[in-house]
Amino acid sequence: MHTRPHLVLSRSARCFGLVAAVSLVAAPAHADEGQWMPGQIVELDRDKLSAMGLELPLEQLWSDNTGLMRAAVNLSGCSAAFVSAEGLIATNHHCAHAAIQAVSSVEHDYLKDGFLARARAEELPGKGLSVRVLERIDDVTAEVLAGADELSDDRARAKAIDRARKQIVETCEAPGGGLRCEVAAFYNMSQFQRFTYRELRDVRLVYAPPSAIGEFGGEIDNWMWPRHTGDFTLLRAYVGPGGEPAEPPSRPSGPEGADANVPYKPQAWLPVAHEGVKAGDFVAVLGYPGNTERYLPLSEVERHESQIFPARVDLLGEWVAILEELGAQDHARGIKVASAKKSLANRLKNARGMLAGFSAIGLVARRRAEEAALEKWAEESGERAYQQVLPALRKLSEDRKASFAHDYLLEQVPNGPNLLGLAIDLVRRARERQKPDLERSAGYMDRNEKKLWDRQEKRLRDFDAEVDAHLLASVIARAQALPAGWKLDAFKDMSPEAEAAKLAGVLGAAVLKDASEKRGSGRERYLKQARQLIARSKLLGEGKAKALFDAADPAALAASGDPFIALALALAPAIEAAEARSESRAGALSRLGPSYFTMLRKVRSGPVYPDANGTLRFSYASIAGYKPREGLMATPQTTLTGQMAKVTGEEPFTMPERVLAAVPKASSTYWADPILGDVPIDFLSSADTTGGNSGSPVINGRGQFIGLNFDRVWENIAGDFGYSERSRNIIVDVRYLLWLLDQVEDAEALLQELGVGALRVAGARAQVGDGLAPPHTATAEPERETCPQERRGCGCTSGAETAAPWWLLGGLLWLRRRRVRG
Q1: pLDDT value for 675
Q2: Which of 30, 93, 94, 470 is the catalytic position?
Q3: How confident is the model at residue 280 (pLDDT cuts 50, 70, 90)?
Q4: Which of the residues 32, 154, 202, 231 is marked catalytic?
Q5: Least crowded by CB within 10 Å, which of 80, 600, 702, 728?
């Protein structure tokens, strides 16, 4: 793998982490820190936001369950936004990647070639996608905790809270009409809120750029700056003729009239800002950030560094290598594994970045200093309840550490071999169906039945025998390596010892020893067994998996004779035991969490916002560059010129000919920035974002749509555990999308719908200055030097005249990586 991320961690960066550790407790609030709940927006500092450039009243963003924030939607775990009155949705290319893959084939490879529907009848089904439009938020804390506070048993407490949450959801969804409800926890389970959504299930693909644009730079540029990726896709949501949520049509729309659904009319949508942005401008990110750990105790931070992230790097590294190697051997197979490979590779690089980031910002040292302050406060409080919190949290971490290897493997198996994941879900569904609905594991409740089957359809669609064999062999090998006391009985007959006992009498000890040594100790040892299991399976037979899914009959599964069903039946007790352990720990955290949060507020300064948990949030910021390390200043915008400088003709730095042909005239179009003198591609802001913010709409101070959040810089990956002055998110500029729709795709109808069709003939705006962004001073970047004209669009400048320019360093690192790979 390439080594560039590790080179970013200069000695000065590590020194910065040590300085930050010393000043943690008394540190002032970071200027743009905070992922604010909608109800907190009206409480923000109006004068400060106005000075930054926000022109809207805060109440116009969110008040009494209405406001511009409702234009932001949850798209199957990503974020997205309505950008027209006709249900047009903008999100990231990588958020729609699996849906694009699902309609692609060797003959119509929409991942590689892109897709544009020139009429609504040409729009393609967005398989697996759904849109949740937020309708209201209500506090339900008292209802959730009413039956739990008196329970002393931790698992019973967790089950009581879980049942209360499910009951609230069931009542909320009872009216039907496409309502989808969730109960989310905040502030270490101190508060609970119910979110009521309208779920739209007919989502269609309108425009997707070629992967050379949507994935430009691939994993090499992932989490990196400067960036030149057009990570955007356009979708459309449909409803029934009366405006009610409806299922997608059973066959494509067309003149036959089979499709009665009509475009959804959103109550709020974001108008497109075509004037553009510049350094220092106010921006805000609206979206559904997935998960942060800003309030995690020291013992868990240490466990993430020593155990969790290394385990992810190890397992995901192997699985990504499998998908890369086998996917490259066959075009059809490459399409099948594309989505899984992209997702796993992103998680892999994230885990590596977390480890590097922990070191760079001195996170563990900072939390140790904080824990010392917590212990001191608890002792001085004289309250025994507070004095017991930290020891109890440490004990929970030790329990997790002991079972981690076993539990982590079980957790990841559904993301690996498709047939085993399918079999596990079939078995779990049948077992859970024996319980009342409210007592089932959430994924197997009746309300999630369609979503569960959609997952099985995807597994069957993406199945490839050789890929599955390698992933299954990896799982078997890892199961055999589990520590004593945590072995999985389901795999005991596949162990080398069991195999040896069967074969020794037939082959002879010497022959058996030689054969074992040739097969090695990793997954190669189990490939033959894995292939045999796949060959014997009946789950791929026409309608077989659906019949077992619908029946949900434990007896029928036990009698099926399928080797994967047998394996899943043997794994089920271990999975359920792991879930029981998790429930007990969750119950303990529901007791300890609120007290721990109270203690944190006594020793921490800064804004008080809850950890991200997949609910709607607001983050404000400014467009700003940053210092990746001593001697370098990254400027906040990139352009077509910089992108073209990266194009080599080899993946992942290729570009379609039709795009290359349009580049020479790009600067003479309206979409060219009058300051940069070129079409902008991406820009940086200091917004507080995390995973789940992918696809988040970014607005200017007037509430207009200016781009889509899609990534963070390498130095900000560990931002999930703590915001820093180098926290930067990467946003694709809407003007790059508009330029492509205009000059490359000739998408007149879409441009008119977006309200910018008349600008196609407007011509270039008068250039300001010499094509360079004006100097901008902010607290996050106290100094800035301009780029020479020939480096315009490269994305950075040196910190001193003798320092090596950023683009040159990047080129040298790229060449070094190529040599290492070769």
Answers
A1: 97
A2: 94
A3: very high
A4: 231
A5: 702
